[in-house]
Write a structure and sequence with these properties.
This protein is α/β, with parallel strands linked by helices. The protein is 38% helix and 21% strand. α1 crosses α8 (253-267).
Length: 312
């Protein structure tokens, strides 16, 4: 098969079939359950990496601990270029501030920036952020707020809203996007913070969920009427997620560079960028060193936020 014969396609539920029997497949371990935005993007990424790397690229899911479970497995793997992790940077930049172990992995490449979206379910009476705050202050016990787990961006946003708006909110942690979205539609809690994704947008547009705020520097083009957390008066919760690829510690620099270059080639493809944009995401380009520097920057900033939360 020639390098460019694999066509860009919609995300499939099955993994890529190995094409090159003589070359070991590259496994990409997605840190979240099937069906979420990160899983969908990872599967398209795997399809596109296959012809670039001249080897089969397969996707596995290992959800749990806000992405930490998958990256812990990557950290235990041999640094031989056969396993990469695909995760938000939370296990490195946020979770350690909540006492969770930091996996020993090497940043390979950023892939996408994803805004945080806060929605209300049908269990919530309010239909905007200000009314939600009023409803939360009157609720006993507090409103239930679901996230993808302890130490995730959604959890940090929840804690910031609690602090800045002086609300009693009950944290409901999940292991990933798909299960919490199903329970959101079943109204098993009032609030959900998750990565902005096409499926969530569809449910907002059809009235099954109600967008209250987005975490981003500017309003989302998909939800122009919805304020950012900063505009809603809660700047500390104005957060977004950065996703990327990680390799086991000790992976040779030349191999990291090769994977980074291959990822950059995919990120430069108009079809891939269009797919990201349709879900409200932006490509995260740059070298492995750039990716590592951004993780360090966010870790420092998150540390200050978490320390402030703990002292109040």
């Amino acid at each position: 098969m020639k390098r460019r014969q694999v066509l860009f396609g919609a995300c499939a539920a099955s993994v890529t079939v190995p094409l090159f029997a003589s070359t070991p497949a590259l496994r990409i371990m997605v840190a979240y359950p099937p069906g979420g935005v990160s899983d969908s993007v990872a599967r398209v990424l795997a399809r596109q990496l296959t012809p670039i790397l001249d080897r089969a690229v397969v996707v596995e899911n290992r959800a749990g601990v806000g992405g930490g479970l998958a990256l812990a497995e990557v950290a235990r793997a041999a640094p031989d270029g056969r396993l990469l992790g695909f995760s938000a940077i939370s296990p490195l930049a946020l979770s350690p501030h909540f006492g969770q172990p930091e996996p020993r992995v090497v940043p390979v490449s950023g892939v996408m920036h994803t805004p945080l979206l806060l929605v209300g379910t049908s269990a919530l009476v309010a239909r905007n952020f200000a009314d939600m705050v009023r409803e939360a202050r009157a609720a006993h016990p507090g409103l239930r707020w679901a996230t993808s787990g302890v130490g995730t961006i959604g959890h940090l946003a929840l804690e910031q809203v609690k602090l800045q708006m002086k609300l009693d909110l009950v944290h409901v942690p999940y292991t990933g996007g798909a299960p919490q979205l199903q329970d959101a539609l079943a109204a098993r809690f009032e609030l959900l913070s998750s990565n902005l994704a096409p499926l969530q947008l569809d449910y907002v547009r059809t009235g099954r969920l109600f967008a209250l705020a987005v975490g981003a520097p500017h309003r989302s083009g998909q939800l122009p009427a919805v304020p950012t957390f900063a505009e809603a008066g809660c700047a500390g919760a104005n957060l977004s997620s950065l996703f990327g690829l990680f390799a086991p510690a000790g992976t040779p620099a030349a191999l990291v560079k090769r994977f980074n270059a291959a990822c950059a080639e995919v990120l430069g493809q108009p079809e891939f960028r269009r797919m990201l944009a349709e879900g409200g995401n932006q490509p995260a380009t740059g070298s492995a060193a750039d990716f590592a520097q951004e993780i360090r920057r966010q870790r420092e900033a998150n540390g200050k936020l978490v320390a402030m939360m703990k002292t109040r």
